[in-house]
Amino acid sequence: MNQLETIKENVQTYGLTDGICRGENLIYSEKTLAGLENIFVDEDKRKAMNQSEVVYRVEAYFPVAEGTEAGLFFGTSRINPGQVGDEYFMTQGHFHQKANRGEFYWGIKGEGVLLLMDMERNTRAEKVFPGSLHYIPGFTGHRLVNTGKEELTVGACWPSDAGHNYGDIREQGFSKGVFNRNGVPVLEDIEKR
Ligand SMILES: O=P(O)(O)OC[C@H]1O[C@](O)(CO)[C@@H](O)[C@@H]1O
Ligand SMILES: [Fe+2]
Fold this sequence. Notes:
Layout: E1 13-14, E2 21-22, E3 26-32, H1 43-48, E4 54-61, E5 72-79, E6 83-84, E7 87-88, E8 103-109, E9 112-117, E10 123-128, E11 133-136, E12 141-146, E13 152-159, H2 167-172, E14 176-181, E15 184-189
Antiparallel strand pairs: 1-2, 3-4, 4-5, 5-13, 6-7, 8-11, 8-13, 9-10, 9-12, 14-15
This protein binds 6-O-phosphono-beta-D-fructofuranose and fe (ii) ion.
The site of 6-O-phosphono-beta-D-fructofuranose (F6P) has 10 residues, from β5 and β13.
Keywords: Gluconeogenesis, Glycolysis, Isomerase
EC number: 5.3.1.9
Family: Belongs to the archaeal-type GPI family.
């Protein structure tokens, strides 16, 4: 048998242009408007919308068990175009349970904004587009916002022991949000709840 025949076919693939993961150990989740209570500024508008509307889906590849130290997870977040009032569709946003864990995001398709908020609630924004690369430092809340008219597809890699802390964001939100002002995405302050 020659050497080439002993090389195992890769069971895991990743679409470079569509971010679709194929193979084993894949986990799928989706968030509808019903699951995003108190995330958008205009809660009344959210409640008045079709609660089963999908805002985003995540497919993740977990090669090791959740919580494994020094392992890595991979994920693709797919945020649909849309708004709640003037606020663009976005992910819940989170800090990491192990707060010092960082993460990489990179833009694959569409256009959007990555909101990054430190522990003192200072929020900055980075433009997301195909090929954009974003380092999310530890102690930083992160949220993806779709400001375009098509799906915003973003890849991610993060430590398998990072975990997700949604509580702080659910209670206090981000200090800034992204709103459609006459067709232009604008970053604006949001007063603390
Ligand atoms: O958990 P959120 O804030 O809804 O973000 C969606 C996903 O984005 C990631 O940060 C990367 O896919 C996942 O960890 C997370 O589940
Ligand atoms: Fe994260």
